[in-house]
Every structure is written in structure tokens, then in C-alpha cells.
Protein 1
Amino acid sequence: MAHHLQPAMGLPRHHGSRVNALVYNVATVLTLVAGVGLMYLGLYLATAAALTVISWDFLGATLGEPAALAHYATLAWLATSMGTVAGALGSSAEDTIAIQRAAFGNREQERRQAQESRENDHARR
């Protein structure tokens, strides 16, 4: 919503438009949930693999108790969550054009530009 990735559909004029809007919205939400979930899982696995450079002795000395696999899993979860939040904050600071360029192909960008031109021409009248 913040970067106008979803086109404004206006108020549906008939039942078919409402159904299409519902399907479009559900597909968008499911795509986002699947994408974020898979990226989170990938980041977690990469972080967990990277934690192998921290020796068991060092981690245990830092924690003040013997290191266990659960400590590595918790550390990977913490780093993954912090990375996800940092990425979300960073993307919200990005400008709308850059986000749309990354999210859409050329044809979609051309369609949006044409629609904005028509709306601007209509507003000038």
C-alpha cells in the first residue's frame, strides 16, 4: 500500500468486479505471505550455517553455561528476525519508483505510466 503496488480499483460496479477484487486481494496476500515466509526460512538457514564459525567453547563462555544446539538455534532466530525487521524498515524508506521498478516488469510499468497520464489529463480538464 505504501508504494502503490496494487492498482486502485475504485468501487466495484457489479458483483463480478467484487469477486475479481477479492480474488486479486487474496492472491496478493498469499503471495506476500509465501514470499516472506520462504525468505525468512532461507535467511534462518543461512544464518544458522554461518553460526558454525562460533566455537562451542566461545559461545559457552559468553553465555556462562555450556553451549547447546538450542543456543545456536536461538541465536540464528534472533539474527534472522533482526534482519527481517531491518529489511522491512529499509524498504519503507525506499522511494516508490524504485520499489515499483523492482516489483513489476516493463509492461506493467508502461501500463501504470499510461494510466497516470490519463488521470493527469483528466484532472487538468
Protein 2
Amino acid sequence: MMVPTVDSNVLIYAIDPRNPGKAKVADAVLKAVRARGGLIALQVINETYRVSTGKLGWPLVVAEQYLRTIPLGFPTFAPTTATVMQALNLASRGLFSIWDANLLAAARLAGCTHIFSEDMAEGDSAAGLEIVNPFSGDALSERARALLSL
């Protein structure tokens, strides 16, 4: 059974008006992940807050109000001491940044099998779950379409 999660770039594209094509794809991915019982990392919510209030220029209170709704639609997961130790190992071997390694290790412990991310190497499974880039330009990638039955 597939248990999906998403990286912060999917949440960010869903709210970024500068790229309507990717926003549409991100929205479809989020809806499909939710429908399949997918999970969201608290780290992803925090990263989305940082980008929305920085790069996107949202007022702090608007970002807070939006991001408070995410855990209402998704079960969440967070890192543990064990996942931080796994992340340090992945990062020290040069496989992922510490932040990506932390997200992947926590996702794996939470039972996730796939992560939708534009920022990590598609197909890589070094952390124990499949990385899938949901984007093909401004459209949905074929792999994401097949996995999410879209």
C-alpha cells in the first residue's frame, strides 16, 4: 500500500501565484495525497512558513492562518532522536542535505513509502522511500500520474 507525503516545494507551489501551471499540479497532488491517507511532516509546514513569509512576502498572520489548516487535512509526523541520527548518517555520506535527510528519515519511520518533491533526485531510494518529482515542466509527471491515478 502506498503511503505518500510531500516536500515543502509542493505546498509552496500550491500557494505561489507566480506559476499557475505548477500551482494546478501541486493542488492536484495535495488532493490525491490527502485522498490516499498521506501524511505531512511538521518540518514541511515550518519550511512553507519560512518561504511564504520571506520569498512570497506574505504577512506573518496570513501565513500562520493558512498553515494552521494543513494539519486539519493531513495526519502529521515529526523527527525523533532516531530519525535525526539516520539523517546525520545520510547527510554525512553526501547523499542528501541535512534537512532533506531529516525529512526522509522521519517520513520512513512514519510509514511513508513515497515522497513527492521537485528538489530531490527522482527515483532515489537511498533513504528507504521512493522520491517522485510530481512536475514535468508545468504539467503532472507521468510517474506521479500513475502513482496517484490522476
